[in-house]
Design goal:
The protein is mainly α. The protein is built from nine helices and no strands. The protein is elongated. Bound molecules: protoporphyrin IX containing FE.
Length: 148
């Protein structure tokens, strides 16, 4: 009798745990991307691809030639992606309009950079949904970044 009750209670507890835990689809984009460590790996790969991309690497000569500046740039990108995907970080860099003012960035430049980001996301096998959601969060920044 006691045994049966204990078993019933255990089953009930398990049902409650399963019913109240958030289903996978309710996890934040940040968690689904794999958290800060995974975002840092994507940003490293992404910046490497941008530096090797002859269509747009002229913009990044100053950052690429100074390790401290490059590290700070990467850290800002990580914080920005972390924050935009619902993570615990706080982006403390310039707003996108100020950061890219006077650079004369074109729509083609922007698309090339997005292509490099997609390449980095694909390399780490980020899922189609996550990729689409991240690009969806960054897309609206285009209006502030492209000035040419
Ligand atoms: C969604 C697209 C983009 C995002 C999210 C983004 C994000 C950022 C961030 C967070 C910074 C650092 C701002 C700070 O220092 O406070 C930055 C700087 C910069 N961005 Fe972008 N950016 C984007 C597109 C572009 C494009 C298309 C170009 C040029 C092809 C570009 C070129 C630069 C350059 C040259 C800097 C300064 C780097 C340095 O010398 O420190 N960005 N961007």
């Amino acid at each position: 009798m006691m045994r049966k009750l204990t078993t019933s209670l255990a089953i009930l507890a398990a049902v409650i745990v399963i019913a109240t835990s958030a289903p996978a689809k309710d996890k934040s984009l940040y968690d689904r991307l794999g958290g800060k460590k995974a975002i840092t790996a994507v940003v490293d790969e992404f910046v490497g691809r941008v530096a090797a991309d002859n269509r747009i690497n002229k913009y990044f000569t100053a950052a690429a030639s100074d390790p401290k500046r490059l590290a700070s740039f990467k850290a800002k990108l990580v914080d920005q992606i972390c924050q935009a995907s619902g993570g615990p970080c706080k982006y403390k860099g310039k707003d996108m309009k100020t950061a890219h003012a006077g650079m004369g960035i074109s729509s083609a430049d922007f698309d090339a950079l997005v292509e490099d980001l997609v390449g980095a996301l694909d390399k780490f096998k980020v899922g189609a949904t996550e990729k689409q959601q991240l690009l969806g969060a960054l897309g609206p920044m285009k209006a502030d970044i492209v000035t040419k």
